[in-house]
Amino acid sequence: MKENIKIPKELLWDYKKPIKDIKWKLQRILMFFPSLGTDKKTIDLLFEKRDELKMEEGKYLLIGIYKEVWDEKCRKKIKENKVLTREKIFYHGKIKKIIKSELKGD
After folding, report:
1. Which domain holds residue 71?
2. Is residue 57 part of a domain?
3. Is 94 part of any domain?
């Protein structure tokens, strides 16, 4: 996973530019979590690095819950896309058959 996230300017009150260290960025986001940092990419990184970051037990557990929810949403989306793809293939196949039969004069 690419370890690069944008950090809101509001979290840089004591820096002109964010430090490039991913742990620093995640630690800063954790100060305001869950008001900030609930997007999938940030949650994935927080979950991956959660044992290396300083946080309260409640936030630790909450990150796990957010991770489960995002993973479930992604599984559902993938499943829906597979169904739609099968429907499109069937639909296009049916159109091709109709066109071929019309060209043959059936």
Report:
1. 9-76
2. yes
3. no
Whether residue 72 lies inside any domain: the answer is yes
17-57 pLDDT tens trace = 778 889 999 999 999 899 889 999 999 999 999 999 999 99
| pTM beyond 0.90, yes or no | no
Nearest Cα neighbor of 3 from 34, 36, 70, 48 is 48
Query: What's the number of domains the chain is made of?
Result: 1
Cβ neighbors of 66 (< 8 A, separation 6 or more) are 34, 38, 43, 47
- Return the CA Rg of the chain: 23
| Best CA proximity match to 63, nearest among 94, 82, 86, 42 | 42
